[in-house]
Specification:
It is built from 22 helices and 18 strands. By secondary structure, the chain is of the alpha/beta class. The strands form four sheets. Strands 1, 4, 5, 6, 9, 10, 11, 12 and 13 form a nine-stranded mixed beta sheet that branches. A hairpin with a 3-residue loop joins strand 15 and strand 16. The mean pLDDT is 89.
C-alpha cells in the first residue's frame, strides 16, 4: 500500500500533543464544567509541549514510540484518577494523595461506583492505536524528521518559559479551594505548586511560633488559647474532672456515621434503638462536626487521640509517619494503663503500621489477628472485631490492669453493602434501591453490633468500671453518591434539604455508669478535636503542658471549628454560621447553622483569620515534633 509523503502532522510529536490537548479540554470540562480554550492553551498546553519536547531530546528513535505511549498512558491515567477523586471528595488530589493510589484496591467497590462510563474516553486514542495496529492501514510512526535545532528547541524554550511564568505568576496566589485553584492555575501547574508548598497546600503561615516558643508546651498552648479566645480552667475547678479516674476507657470509631440517623424513625421503626436508649444515660453532643483531612478514617483516629489538626492536603499517617505525637495513649500509660487499638483491616492501609507507634499505642490488632471469617466489604465484620476483642479486655480485667481500647469499625463503609442475613432494618420498598436506604441499613447494623457489645461488657462485669464513648469518623452521605431519588428521600427523612451542615455533622456520645446516668444532650458547637480533651477531663488526666487545639466540652461552651479538606482551608463553623471561602474570604459564603440560609459573611472576617492562624500553628507544631 502506498502512503502519502510524510508530514509534520503524522509525527508522534504532533499526534501526542493533539491527543493530550483534547484530553486536557475534556478533563477541565469534567472538573470545572466549562470549556475555556484560552485557559487550556495557556495553562495546560505548555506542559504538554514541554513533555513532548523532552521526549524528542532524550529518547532515541528505537524507544521514542514506547516513550510517547507510556507518557500518554501516565497522563491519561492521571486525568482519570483526578476526575474520579474529585467526583467524591470535591477536591483536586495533590501528587501526595496520588502516591497513595496503591491503596485503591482496598476500597475498589467504592471506587467502582464512582466511575462513570464517559471517564474511559481518556483512553480512546489507545483503542484507535490498537485498531491501526491490527489493520495495519496506517503506520504509527512517521518518517518525517523533526529538526531539534529549528523546531524542537524553540518550542521547548517557549513552553518552558510559559510554564515557568505560570508557576511564578501563581506561586504567591493563595486560593483555599483546590478545585478553584486548579482551574485558575492549571492542573499541571497546581501539582507543581503543591510540591513547592508542601503538605499544608499553600496555607498562609500567619502567627507562627518562634523557635523559643516551640521549646515550651505552656507557651505554645497559651498562644493557641489566645487565638481561640479561651481561658484555661485549672483542673481543680473543672466540672467532672477525674469523675471516671481509674476506669477503663473504651472508644469506638464508627465508619461513615453521621448524626442524623440517631433518633430517626422510618415507618415508626427506630433506625438506632440501642443508641437511642443509651442516650438516656449518656452525654450526647449532637452538634459536633468532622475535621478529617486527606487521610479520612486514619485522620479521625489521629484527631481523636491527639486533639491536633491533621495535615493539609496529605494523610497525616503518611507525611508525618516518623513523628512521636503527644497523645491519649501516652498520657494514660503514665497512669498505668495498657493501651491498644483494634482494626480488622491490613495495618498497611493508610500506613497505620507507622501511625499506631507514632500515637504511642502499646499494641495494635489488625487483619492477621482477626482472620478472614464473616467477610463484609473491606474485611471481617464488626461483629468479629468486637467478639475477638472482648477476650483482650477480660484478660486485662483479670490482671486488675486498667486499659484504653480504641475500636475502629469498618463494616459500614461505602458502598454500604450489608449482606441480607445481617439486615436488621426492614426498609420501605421505595428506599430499597437507594444509596440512602443502604446507608440506613449499615448504620442500623452498627447499632445492633453496639448493643451486643454492651451486653458482653455487662455480662463480663466490665460495664460499671468503664467509660464507653463512640463517634463517627466522617460523613457517609455525599451528593456524588446519590441516585435520582436519593435527595428526595433524605429531604423526607430530615424534613429539609440535605446540606453540608447535615453532611459534616457526626455524633459523639459518652456513657459512664454512675456519672452520666441522668443523661445530657448538648447542642453546643463542637468538633472532633474536642473529643480527646473532654475524655481526658473525665478520666482525670491533666492536659497541663500538653498541646491541644480542641477544648473540654464539659467546661468550655464557646467554640470555633476549623476544616481544611472536605471544605477549603479557612472554612469554619462558629456559633452562628458555617463559612466557606472560594479564592479567599471576600468571595466566600456563609450559611446560618440553624436554617442553612445564606447571610452576609463580612462580619465573620475575624473568625476566618483566626482559623488560618490555628491551622498554621498546628502545621508548624507537627513539623517541630521529635521523631519516634
Amino acid at each position: 500500500m502506498q502512503y502519502k509523503k510524510a508530514s509534520f502532522f503524522s509525527t508522534l510529536f504532533f499526534t501526542f500533543t493533539i491527543s493530550m490537548f483534547l484530553k486536557a479540554i475534556f478533563v477541565r470540562f469534567l472538573l470545572f464544567e466549562d470549556i475555556n480554550m484560552i485557559d487550556t492553551i495557556s495553562l495546560e498546553l505548555c506542559y504538554i509541549l514541554l513533555f513532548a519536547c523532552l521526549i524528542e531530546y532524550i529518547a532515541n528513535s528505537k524507544v521514542k514510540f514506547s516513550a510517547y505511549l507510556s507518557l500518554n498512558l501516565l497522563l491519561s491515567t492521571l486525568f482519570f484518577g483526578i476526575t474520579v477523586y474529585h467526583s467524591y471528595f470535591g477536591n483536586i488530589p495533590t501528587y501526595y494523595a496520588l502516591m497513595q493510589a496503591g491503596q485503591v484496591g482496598a476500597v475498589k467497590d467504592s471506587v467502582n461506583q464512582l466511575i462513570q462510563p464517559e471517564y474511559f474516553l481518556f483512553y480512546t486514542d489507545f483503542i484507535v492505536m490498537a485498531i491501526l495496529l491490527l489493520t495495519r492501514k496506517i503506520p504509527l510512526q512517521s518518517k518525517f524528521k523533526l529538526s531539534k535545532k529549528k523546531m524542537i528547541a524553540p518550542i521547548l524554550g517557549i513552553s518552558f518559559a510559559v510554564c515557568l511564568a505560570n508557576f511564578f505568576l501563581h506561586k504567591d496566589e493563595i486560593i483555599t479551594d483546590s478545585a478553584v485553584a486548579a482551574e485558575s492555575k492549571g492542573i499541571f501547574n497546581f501539582e507543581a505548586l503543591q510540591v513547592y508548598y508542601g503538605p499544608n497546600g499553600g496555607l498562609p503561615q500567619a502567627a507562627a511560633f518562634s523557635e523559643a516558643e516551640l521549646q515550651n508546651e505552656k507557651t505554645i498552648q497559651d498562644k493557641i488559647n489566645e487565638v481561640k479566645g479561651i481561658t484555661e480552667i485549672p483542673d481543680s475547678e473543672r466540672k467532672y474532672f477525674g469523675a471516671a479516674k481509674g476506669r477503663n476507657l473504651i472508644l469506638i470509631q464508627f465508619e461513615s456515621m453521621q448524626d442524623f440517623p440517631i433518633g430517626l424513625k422510618i415507618d415508626g421503626k427506630e433506625v438506632t434503638p440501642t443508641m437511642n436508649k443509651l442516650l438516656n444515660n449518656s452525654f450526647y453532643f449532637n452538634n459536633l462536626y468532622q475535621q478529617t483531612g486527606a487521610g479520612n478514617t486514619s485522620d479521625a483516629e489521629f484527631i481523636a487521640n491527639t486533639s491536633l489538626y491533621p495535615a493539609g492536603m496529605v494523610a497525616t499517617s503518611t507525611f508525618f509517619e516518623n513523628k512521636a505525637f503527644p497523645s491519649m495513649p501516652r498520657l494514660l500509660q503514665k497512669e498505668g494503663y495498657e493501651t491498644f487499638t483494634l482494626h480488622a483491616d491490613k495495618v498497611e492501609f493508610w500506613n497505620r503500621v507507622e501511625l499506631y507507634p507514632s500515637l504511642g499505642f502499646d499494641k495494635y490488632y489488625e487483619l492477621d489477628f482477626f482472620g478472614k471469617e464473616d467477610l463484609i466489604g473491606l474485611g471481617p465484620s464488626d461483629e468479629v472485631m468486637f467478639n475477638k476483642g472482648m477476650p483482650l479486655l477480660t484478660k486485662l480485667r483479670d490482671k486488675n490492669k486498667p486499659f484504653y481500647a480504641h475500636f475502629i469499625s469498618m463494616t459500614s463503609h461505602h458502598p454500604y453493602e450489608i449482606p441480607t442475613d445481617k439486615d436488621v432494618f426492614e426498609l420501605p420498598e421505595a428506599y430499597k434501591k437507594s444509596i440512602v436506604g443502604k446507608y440506613i441499613q449499615a448504620i442500623s447494623y452498627n447499632d445492633m453490633v453496639l448493643g451486643k457489645f454492651i451486653d458482653q461488657l455487662k455480662a463480663e462485669g466490665l460495664w460499671e468500671n468503664s467509660v464507653l464513648a463512640f463517634y463517627g469518623d466522617h460523613m457517609g452521605m455525599h451528593h456524588t453518591m446519590f441516585k435520582e431519588n436519593d435527595p428526595d428521600i433524605l429531604k423526607e427523612l430530615l424534613g429539609h434539604e440535605y446540606t453540608k451542615i447535615d453532611r459534616f455533622n457526626v455524633p459523639f456520645v459518652i456513657t459512664a455508669p454512675g456519672i452520666t446516668d441522668n443523661g445530657m444532650t448538648s447542642d453546643q458547637l463542637a468538633g472532633q478535636l474536642d473529643m480527646m480533651p473532654t475524655l481526658a477531663n473525665l478520666m482525670g488526666v491533666s492536659l497541663n503542658n500538653y498541646v491541644h487545639f480542641g477544648q473540654d466540652l464539659l467546661n468550655h461552651k464557646e467554640n470555633l471549628i476549623g476544616m481544611r479538606y472536605y471544605m477549603p482551608a479557612g472554612s469554619f463553623f462558629n456559633g452562628e454560621v458555617v463559612f466557606q471561602p472560594e479564592k479567599s474570604f471576600d468571595d466566600g459564603e456563609a450559611l446560618m447553622l440553624e436554617t442553612a440560609k445564606k447571610v452576609p459573611h463580612a462580619p465573620y472576617r475575624e473568625d476566618y483569620d483566626r482559623i488560618l492562624k490555628l491551622l498554621g500553628l498546628s502545621d508548624q507544631y507537627l513539623k517541630s515534633l521529635p521523631d519516634k
